[in-house]
Amino acid sequence: MASLSAIAIALALLLPVLLLRRHFSKTTSAHASAAPQSRGDDEKPKTIMQPPREDLAPPKDDPYTLEQLKAFDGSDPSKPIYVSIKGTVFDVTHKKDVYGPGKSYHIFAGKDGSRGLGMSSLNAEDAVPDYSALPENEMKVLDDWHSFFSKRYNIVGKVVDLPEAVAPKL
Ligand code: HEM
Q: Which of 21, 49, 149, 154 has the most ligand 1 atoms within 8 A of CB, as the residue to mutate?
């Protein structure tokens, strides 16, 4: 009897966690693979993510500090919007509708929010550069995002003052 209720309690605790994980891994795999989503027999397949671009400029190597990056969060419409992932700075200005102030992914604008990207988290406290403690599966998610951005946004520079745990080794 006691063991039955123990199983029931364990299931009750575990189920929401499993459901959440499934939700997020589904979300990120749709995100990361940019898989076409079919919406019915009579409709063409629809891609929810923007396709890769063929017209990217050669990557630039301009140095940015994390403090300097803050100016590129979209709050000044005369400036471009930058998102940094693992220290690579991407110009996401043409997706103002996603990264601009008040938009869904503004949390990643004007900063390096690698940890949050790896965790599939939109919480402000997770959008920080130090991703060193991520488990292997979240490291993979983060790398998939880096590759996703590399195929869609121009690289305009690199962050030169990443926390020591994730700074490139010289
Ligand atoms: C149920 C939850 C979610 C849904 C339905 C969803 C849906 C979408 C959709 C439809 C897009 C394409 C948007 C566009 O190109 O205009 C997108 C892009 C994106 N999502 Fe999500 N999302 C979810 C959760 C998350 C979470 C938790 C994160 C946190 C990392 C995230 C990060 C991103 C990023 C970085 C993009 C790329 C935007 C780009 O540069 O093209 N999403 N999402």
A: 49
